[in-house]
């Protein structure tokens, strides 16, 4: 190990995120740490994650406090060699980040994949560049321990060799990819990197473990609310009770919904549906297999994927780009497959995990994956790929006891199907009035990608499938 101080910069935690909130430190100044040991819990707009250290040694500096928002590419932790004295001159500790010229190709590989939207890279990369930052003064933490603080350095000149294990180029990988490998008992020495210069990517680990992942135990995020200080609101004349910073998932939801409303000219169609036959079919399946019968949402998800095959315009994306002449060009991008997102309410806000390649799964398989994704989303452990790869969203707001909703489309998708509560209603069956189990389906769609006929056709297909599930499932 080098005798110089090593600085670990906060890596990109996925999908081009630029910041993360430091929830909790898992180490303290003076602790001896090992490679891949979790050092901090951070919350991004997508998920809560533990960040492991790419270095072994003694914790010299913690760059930030719990509750602080840190920028990607800025120092997170500084690690000194084992045996180094930290208490002698904390005000004069010098740290240098060694150059990593061989990692520049790995960085380019990361950027290329991210721009292409492959979803294969989760976080982190190395780049070339040199520079150093010097510590100028100590400060005290709330616990009273001395922590050295940097003056404002030129971070543009700091090397971003934040995840490279010295001496092994094939291990130039993100901390979370290494954590995934560790959690599943995958030896990195046995994993061939598919990235440039042997860079190990998330897809390589998934291939090694058969494409399945399990997440760590949930971590509760502390509530960040500033209590009233007696300040009076100028507009209402009332005392301000509290101020809650908008950050993390709530900040991402706000930005996404605002963009959807401002950019998408949406329209809505809806229909009441007799779901009696579907409920009876599921009740019969539950009698035969009390623990293995798929839930209602899984059946509706199956009908949705079948409907999207017939009306693929609703499984697209509308994009505006610059053409070769520098002018504006608009395109509708169609996909060879369906990633079905579904809205899940969590303690951290509303998130939309997606079932990848949902069109290849039957109702039982969809039910299993929906349950798995719901669990990891509520634990705050869903990956950026699981939360940002949907092509169409299914929203079961009926669980909240409402019949309908003027839903906002989950940008950048072009449509969302909402399902209301199922209740007893009077319904005409074969000319006779009867009490039936009725729900309301609502489809919000981007009018730029299709007209009302397509939207109505899709909605009617799903409605007919719910009313006659046996007939439809035979043909699927």
UniProtKB/TrEMBL annotation:
It is an enzyme of class 2 (transferase). Its cofactor is (R)-lipoate. Belongs to the 2-oxoacid dehydrogenase family. GO terms for molecular function: acyltransferase activity. Pfam families: 2-oxoacid_dh, Biotin_lipoyl, E3_binding. InterPro entries: 2-oxoacid_DH_actylTfrase, 2-oxoacid_DH_E2_comp, Biotin_lipoyl, CAT-like_dom_sf, E3-bd_dom_sf, PSBD, Single_hybrid_motif. The keyword Nucleotidyltransferase does not apply. Its EC number is 2.3.1.-. This is Dihydrolipoamide acetyltransferase component of pyruvate dehydrogenase complex. The keyword Glycosyltransferase does not apply. Keywords: Acyltransferase, Lipoyl, Transferase. Residues 99-109 have a biased composition (Low complexity). It comes from the Bacteria. PANTHER family: DIHYDROLIPOAMIDE ACETYLTRANSFERASE COMPONENT OF PYRUVATE DEHYDROGENASE COMPLEX, LIPOAMIDE ACYLTRANSFERASE COMPONENT OF BRANCHED-CHAIN ALPHA-KETO ACID DEHYDROGENASE COMPLEX, MITOCHONDRIAL. Signal peptide: none annotated. CDD domains: lipoyl_domain. Residues 91-148 are annotated as: Disordered. Residues 172-209 form the Peripheral subunit-binding (PSBD) domain. Residues 5-80 form the Lipoyl-binding domain.
């Amino acid at each position: 190990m080098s005798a110089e101080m090593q600085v670990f910069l906060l890596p990109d935690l996925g999908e081009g995120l630029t910041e993360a909130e430091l929830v909790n430190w898992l180490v303290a100044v003076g602790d001896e740490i090992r490679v891949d040991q979790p050092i901090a819990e951070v919350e991004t707009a997508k998920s809560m994650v533990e960040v492991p250290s790419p270095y072994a040694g003694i914790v010299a500096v913690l760059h930030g406090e719990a509750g602080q928002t840190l920028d990607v590419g800025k120092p997170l932790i500084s690690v000194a060699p084992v045996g180094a004295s930290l208490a002698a001159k904390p005000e004069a500790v010098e740290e240098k980040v060694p150059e990593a010229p061989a990692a520049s190709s790995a960085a380019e590989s990361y950027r290329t994949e991210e721009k292409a939207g492959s979803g294969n890279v989760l976080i982190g990369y190395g780049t070339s560049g040199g520079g150093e930052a010097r510590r100028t003064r100590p400060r005290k933490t709330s616990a009273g321990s001395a922590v050295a603080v940097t003056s404002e350095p030129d971070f543009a000149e700091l090397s971003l060799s934040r995840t490279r294990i010295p001496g092994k180029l094939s291990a130039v990988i993100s901390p979370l990819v290494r954590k995934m490998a560790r959690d599943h008992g995958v030896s990195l020495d046995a994993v061939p990197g598919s990235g440039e210069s042997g860079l190990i990517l998330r897809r390589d680990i998934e291939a090694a473990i058969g494409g399945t992942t399990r997440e760590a135990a949930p971590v509760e995020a502390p509530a960040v609310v500033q209590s009233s200080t007696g300040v009076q609101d100028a507009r209402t004349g009332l005392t301000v009770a509290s101020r809650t910073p908008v950050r993390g998932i709530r900040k991402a939801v706000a930005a996404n919904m605002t963009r959807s409303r401002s950019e998408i000219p949406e329209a809505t169609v809806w229909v009441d549906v007799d779901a009696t036959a579907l409920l009876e079919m599921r009740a019969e399946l539950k009698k035969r297999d009390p623990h293995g019968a798929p839930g209602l949402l899984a059946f509706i998800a199956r009908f949705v994927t079948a409907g999207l095959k017939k009306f693929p315009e609703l499984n697209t994306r509308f994009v505006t780009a610059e053409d070769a002449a520098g002018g504006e060009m608009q395109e509708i991008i169609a996909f060879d497959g369906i990633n079905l997102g579904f809205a899940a309410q969590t303690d951290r806000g509303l998130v939309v995990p997606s079932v990848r390649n949902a069109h290849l799964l039957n109702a039982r398989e969809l039910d299993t994956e929906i349950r798995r994704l719901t669990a990891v989303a509520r634990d705050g452990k869903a990956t950026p790929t699981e939360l940002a790869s949907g092509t169409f969203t299914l929203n079961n707001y009926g669980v909240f006891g409402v019949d309908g909703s003027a839903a906002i489309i989950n940008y950048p998708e072009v449509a969302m199907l909402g399902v209301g509560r199922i209740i007893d209603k009077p319904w005409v069956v074969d000319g006779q009035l009867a009490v039936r189990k009725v729900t309301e389906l609502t489809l919000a769609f981007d009018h730029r990608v299709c007209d009302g006929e397509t939207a109505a056709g899709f909605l009617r297909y799903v409605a007919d499938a719910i009313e006659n599930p046996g007939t439809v499932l035979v043909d699927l």
